[in-house]
């Protein structure tokens, strides 16, 4: 998926605020959901899981520089 490939190049900037700004404005969830309208229904699940994985990796890299310290709180006890 092209957008996930582009997200993988964000660390080349070496500027976390700029990376986050680009991630938010250019590769945001709203634009992704708008693009899903053009996707055939049988492929939506695979596309969404691929995008979620890429987005999580990009955010993880911005927040903790790819380290193992990012823990997402799920709200479950």
Give the SSE string: HHHH
Q: How much is the radius of gyration in Å?
A: 14 Å
The structural domain count equals: 1
Global shape:
globular
Average pLDDT for all residues: 76
Secondary structure blueprint with pairings:
Blueprint: H1 2-7, H2 16-26, H3 29-36, H4 44-64
Helix pairs in contact: 2-4
Overview of this structure, please?
There is one protein chain. The protein has helices at residues 2-7, 16-26, 29-36, 44-64. It contains 4 helices and no strands. The chain is mostly helical and 77 residues long. The chain has one domain (2-64). The radius of gyration is 14 Å and the shape is globular. The mean pLDDT is 76. The N and C termini lie far apart (35 Å). α2 packs antiparallel against α4.
Task: Please summarize what this structure is.
With 77 residues, this protein is mostly helical.
Short key terms for the protein model shown above:
single chain, 77 residues, mainly alpha, 4 helices, 60% helix, globular
């Amino acid at each position: 998926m092209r957008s996930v490939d582009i997200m993988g190049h964000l660390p080349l900037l070496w500027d976390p605020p700029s990376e986050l700004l680009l991630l938010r404005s250019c590769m945001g969830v709203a634009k992704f959901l708008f693009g899903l309208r053009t996707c055939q229904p049988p492929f939506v699940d695979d596309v969404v899981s691929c995008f979620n994985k890429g987005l999580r990796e990009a955010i993880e890299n911005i927040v903790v520089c790819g380290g193992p310290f990012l823990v997402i709180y799920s709200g479950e006890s």
